[in-house]
Design goal:
Number of strands: 0
Helix content: over 70%
Number of domains: 2
Number of helices: 6
Structural class: mainly alpha
Shape: rod-shaped
Largest sheet: none
């Protein structure tokens, strides 16, 4: 009669071997979940920069002197805020950077128009 226990050892691992296997599988599962659940960082700095650019454009009276650029910037800024609140950070960052760019352009255009008006007087 052959040793039946030797053949069964493949199917039924001993306590030490099953612990090693379980630990390895658990480590692989944790690594997989950690990699798949990685999120994008919150775009705090782009939102702050866009807000500061908006305040600068307001000081330059860009809403009145460069309404087209100011309106584009405002739409992007509020879109960034909405996406930020909905935790869609990639779109929020993209919109915040565009809003900052448009606010800065509007501020420059408003400053130039304001300077033109003061030269005429």
């Amino acid at each position: 009669m052959k040793n039946v226990w030797g053949a069964g050892r493949i199917l039924f691992l001993s306590y030490d071997e099953s612990m090693k296997l379980r630990d390895t599988l658990l480590l692989a599962l944790v690594a997989f979940l950690g990699a798949s659940c990685a999120t994008t960082d919150k775009p705090v700095k782009p939102m702050i920069f866009a807000s500061a650019a908006m305040k600068g454009a307001d000081r330059a009276r860009a809403e009145r002197l460069a309404p087209d650029l100011y309106r584009k910037a405002e739409v992007k800024f509020w879109s960034a805020r909405k996406n930020y609140m909905q935790k869609n950070f990639e779109l929020a960052q993209k919109d915040a950077k565009l809003a900052k760019l448009f606010f800065e352009k509007a501020e420059i255009k408003a400053s130039l128009k304001s300077a033109e008006g003061s030269d005429d007087e």
